[in-house]
């Protein structure tokens, strides 16, 4: 196998480990396998790899608001005891939208609601930068991913009054612990035609975030305060202890950049109950260095994770 092939093998192997973690975190144990190595010319990652499939129409500032008088601050950043709403009762501004999202998610966990969950992973072709090799990778990747078609055909059902362990946030009583509105890239709210309200929160990008600790009520990074990122030690465990992986890969140094992570929540303003929730994480996997079959490797690839929560029962 030529050196250029090892680069793709390293990228793919990290994706396999990441995908394996998602399955284990949901309580599904698997044995990671590595079968075959695709052949492809090395290509440089493009800017497209760090962009979402669709761009939002507007972008909010990523910097924290500057200090000054209350009159100098935009409405979205004014502190308030009660979340501001417009004449239709829709939360307005980053702080109010985050407060409402947190209240709804915390309340759902406290009431042990029933719900269905669909979660799946993809390597979008437009983000993979692998050209024609993608069709060779996907049959192997499918052993580790839960693809969208399979996930939607087999939704996980969590009955009312059951264990809320796998309702975001994982392994804690809280549904969201984010409080720093400066970590919000974009927040919007809108009233839908059926009378429900949709909240959308997109967070600022973050390198190597960690999930909230089991039982904790705070998190020291903003992605982990709202989403369920990969715990680095779990990926390292696969790399170091899974026989099939560690035979191929040695001394792998990699980073995980979470970008455009977005939560969308629809709720009924009359009952204050969640109707549906969608959480999207986009992960740029960056291989800084390492050895595959004795050869030095670098490279990157993108893994997307989508979680859909529906059929809520209060």
Strand and helix map with partners:
Blueprint lengths: L2 H23 L68 H17 L3 E9 L2 H4 L5 H8 L6 H6 L2 E3 L25 E8 L5 E7 L2 E2 L24 H10 L1 H6 E20 L4 E20 L2 E2 L2 E15 L1
Antiparallel strand pairs: 1-2, 1-9, 3-4, 4-6, 5-6, 6-7, 7-8, 7-9
Helix pairs in contact: 1-6
For this entry, give a set of tags.
alpha+beta; 9-stranded antiparallel β-sheet; 9 strands; disordered N terminus
Description:
Strand 3 and strand 4 (197-203) form a beta hairpin. 36% of the residues are buried. The protein is an alpha+beta fold. It has helices at 3-25, 94-110, 125-128, 134-141, 148-153, 232-241, 243-248, and strands at residues 114-122, 156-158, 184-191, 197-203, 206-207, 249-268, 273-292, 295-296, 299-313. It starts with a helix and ends with a strand. It is built from seven helices and nine strands; from the N terminus they run ααβαααββββααββββ. Helix 1 packs across helix 6 (232-241). Mean pLDDT is 75; it is low at 1-9 and 26-81. Strands 1, 2, 3, 4, 5, 6, 7, 8 and 9 form a nine-stranded antiparallel sheet that branches.
């Amino acid at each position: 196998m030529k050196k250029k092939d090892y680069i793709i093998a390293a990228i793919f192997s990290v994706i396999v480990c990441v995908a394996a973690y998602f399955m284990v975190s949901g309580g599904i144990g698997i044995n990671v396998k590595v079968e075959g190595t695709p052949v492809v010319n090395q290509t440089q990652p493009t800017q497209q790899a760090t962009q979402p499939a669709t761009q939002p129409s507007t972008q909010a500032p990523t910097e924290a608001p500057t200090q000054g008088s209350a009159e100098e601050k935009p409405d979205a950043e004014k502190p308030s005891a009660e979340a501001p709403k417009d004449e239709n009762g829709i939360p307005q501004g980053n702080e109010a939208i985050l407060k409402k999202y947190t209240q709804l998610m915390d309340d759902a966990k406290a009431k042990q609601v029933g719900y269905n969950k669909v979660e799946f992973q993809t390597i979008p072709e437009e983000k993979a930068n692998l050209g024609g090799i993608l069709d060779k990778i996907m049959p192997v990747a499918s052993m580790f991913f839960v693809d969208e078609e399979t996930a939607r055909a087999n939704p996980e059902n969590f009955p009312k009054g059951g264990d809320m362990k796998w309702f975001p946030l994982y392994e804690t009583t809280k549904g969201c612990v984010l409080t720093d509105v400066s970590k919000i890239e974009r927040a919007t709210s809108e009233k839908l035609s059926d009378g429900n309200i949709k909240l959308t929160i997109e967070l600022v990008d973050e390198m190597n975030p960690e999930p909230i600790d089991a039982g904790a009520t705070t998190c020291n990074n903003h992605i982990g305060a709202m989403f369920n990122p990969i715990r680095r030690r779990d990926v390292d465990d696969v790399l170091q202890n899974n026989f099939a992986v560690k035979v191929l890969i040695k001394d792998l140094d990699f980073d995980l950049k979470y970008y455009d992570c977005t939560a969308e929540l629809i709720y009924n303003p009359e009952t204050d109950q969640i109707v549906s929730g969608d959480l999207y994480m986009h992960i740029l996997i960056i291989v800084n260095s390492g050895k595959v079959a004795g050869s030095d490797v670098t490279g990157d690839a993108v893994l997307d994770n989508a979680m859909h929560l529906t059929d809520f029962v209060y």
